[in-house]
Amino acid sequence: MADASINSYMTGPDEQGRFGLFGGRFVSETLMPLILDLEARYEFAKTDPTFWAEMDWLWKHYVGRPSPLYYAERLTKHLGGAKIYLKRDELNHTGAHKINNVLGQIILARRMGKTRIIAETGAGQHGVATATVCAKFGLQCVVYMGAHDVERQAPNVFRMRLLGAEVIPVTSGRGTLKDAMNDALRDWVTNVRDTFYCIGTVAGPHPYPAMVRDFQSIIGKEVRWQLAEQEGAGRLPDTLIAAIGGGSNAMGLFYPFLDDPSVNIIGVEAGGKGVDDRMQHCASLTGGRPGVLHGNRTYLLQDDDGQILEGFSISAGLDYPGIGPEHSWLHDTGRAKYVSITDAEALEAFQLSCKLEGIIPALEPSHALAHVMKIAPTLPHDHIIVMNMCGRGDKDIFTVAKHLGFDMKI
Amino acid sequence: MTRIDAKFAALRAEGKKAFVAYIMAGDPDLATSAAVMQGLPGAGVDIIELGMPFTDPMADGPTIQLAGQRSLEGGQTLQKTLDMAAAFRKSDNTTPIVLMGYYNPIYSRGVAKFLVDAKAAGIDGLIVVDLPPEEDAELCIPAQAAGLNFIRLATPTTDAKRLPKVLQNTSGFLYYVSINGITGAAAANPADVAPEVARIKAKTDLPVIVGFGISTPDAAQGIAAIADGCVVGSAIVKDIGAGKPVAEVLANVAALAAGAHRA
Ligand SMILES: Cc1ncc(COP(=O)(O)O)c(C=O)c1O
């Protein structure tokens, strides 16, 4: 399956910011000097021990890393097959993996002398993480959020405002993550001197996909030593599973294992109401084809004329018609496999996690868990699955209550 | 020599500045936008920029975003835009047409096929906002080989070190974006733009046309005076969006063109 001509899956992107056909720098001229500058500053920071010392300190004392790698015993017994571990990134400060990346970008922004931070957000987790770190460092923070998402993720909107961020509802398009990203890019071309654009996933023009991946890779790096600690030296996971919106929590888990051929890698896209030609889903790899949007070439949901289609998912964090370019490449080379899970399956997984493990998951990792539920029973007891529990579900209880017909007005 | 090169040679001979007008193809519907396009040369427009609608126009402000939405809702496609240009060419074989838009609809059609079709439709040049010099291999180089001009944007962030790279594969003219921002934003002050244009003209013989933020005849005159011409987009698109009759849209275009030609 995996492409035999590739010696390593960990060398990308190339000088052009490409992962094979995917990635690149498809931005207007106004932004080009900015992303070249960012690339140079990031390349320098990457090899600067003081940068990583600052990251490590904050990861430990502010975020609470390392996050536990937790053997989900009752879930394992219930499914009756593979041994299931959950990487508990939902226990991070602010409740999701998003802050891993935000810390890196904000430290970089400070070193670049930027005073104003902008971000796009879907579920609001990236917006909350950005608002949080900006509050900590006294930076101005502006978050673009689709008007539809503002409505379905109200608790996160209030959190961001409490943290001092300005939340701007975006009404263009269908008012979801894609539209928020458009408006964040429009802000950036208008405020080029003082503003740093803190992108929340492994998408956007080079160097963002690589930079965000590098910051999120702490997830997979921890899994490697944590699993060895619990299962014996050298024991690698057999299967990694993570949900994919843009793909940052997934890249963070997958990347450190790309060159371990025994590790199966599975990304789970949002299947919405089902992946068919009615486009009521967000499964870019399963239902899209290569195109150019938001600075990179990647698989996109689009019509025959190259117009971008609106995705559909119960989960605001997965509601994006694209996917990070590195995933497109891992898909085409066969190194990783991508599947989709419907809203209904995710809701079922959400409830199972609550009941069996006492963990209220976000709707995003509920998609990953739904796929674990599908495959775990078919695998032997000594097969180890590590799933990224990348966010907690507090933000989603209103949505879930609505779908389960539960009246929240007590 | 493309129609663009011929147009600038003629303007130079007359000692006139160029007036470039942008409209969105298919806005608010195909028939109206075709009628506006037909009337542009008579209103004094030297070069037509024909917008190709895209769902995610990252460099555009609300006015042109909405124009694109109207156009797409009316069923506009890249094929219809090319057909519209071809129809225009039947009665006007000199006014240059530059297609302006974003890369994905072109990439989706296939670059090679797009270039053949665009050339056949009488298109003279392309402005593709999300293709910087770093991505020249995608469309810029093939377009020049197919005999189309590839017109690049330079911006206030294009510094002296970067300028040669921007100029390298540009042809037809250089489009100087007078502000950091999106279309339809605040107007630029000619006094601020003049040294920038001079800085660029010191490095190229190409005509330098200035756009973004120009909305009145006086502003068109002021900007055209310090460059080789100016572009007006949002101000015209706003009239079309407000549902003004074609004759009124064209009368306003004529006033803007007269402003630029006074320079
Ligand atoms: C908990 C959680 N998981 C996943 C995602 C999707 O993003 P990504 O695919 O980049 O991890 C989000 C986005 O908001 C999120 O909040």
Automatic annotation (TrEMBL), chain A:
The keyword Amino-acid biosynthesis applies. One of its GO terms (cellular component) is cytoplasm. Pathway: Amino-acid biosynthesis; L-tryptophan biosynthesis; L-tryptophan from chorismate: step 5/5. Its cofactor is pyridoxal 5'-phosphate. It catalyses: (1S,2R)-1-C-(indol-3-yl)glycerol 3-phosphate + L-serine = D-glyceraldehyde 3-phosphate + L-tryptophan + H2O. Its EC number is 4.2.1.20. Belongs to the TrpB family. This is Tryptophan synthase beta chain. It comes from Rhodobacter ferrooxidans. The lineage of its organism: Bacteria, Pseudomonadati, Pseudomonadota, Alphaproteobacteria, Rhodobacterales.
From TrEMBL, chain B:
This is Tryptophan synthase alpha chain. It catalyses: (1S,2R)-1-C-(indol-3-yl)glycerol 3-phosphate + L-serine = D-glyceraldehyde 3-phosphate + L-tryptophan + H2O. It comes from the Bacteria. Gene3D superfamilies: Aldolase class I. It is an enzyme of class 4 (lyase). The active site is at residues 49, 60. SUPFAM superfamilies: Ribulose-phoshate binding barrel (SSF51366). PANTHER family: TRYPTOPHAN SYNTHASE ALPHA CHAIN, CHLOROPLASTIC, TRYPTOPHAN SYNTHASE, ALPHA CHAIN. Keywords: Amino-acid biosynthesis, Aromatic amino acid biosynthesis, Lyase, Tryptophan biosynthesis. It comes from Rhodobacter ferrooxidans. Belongs to the TrpA family. The gene is trpA. Pathway: Amino-acid biosynthesis; L-tryptophan biosynthesis; L-tryptophan from chorismate: step 5/5. GO terms for molecular function: tryptophan synthase activity. The alpha subunit is responsible for the aldol cleavage of indoleglycerol phosphate to indole and glyceraldehyde 3-phosphate.
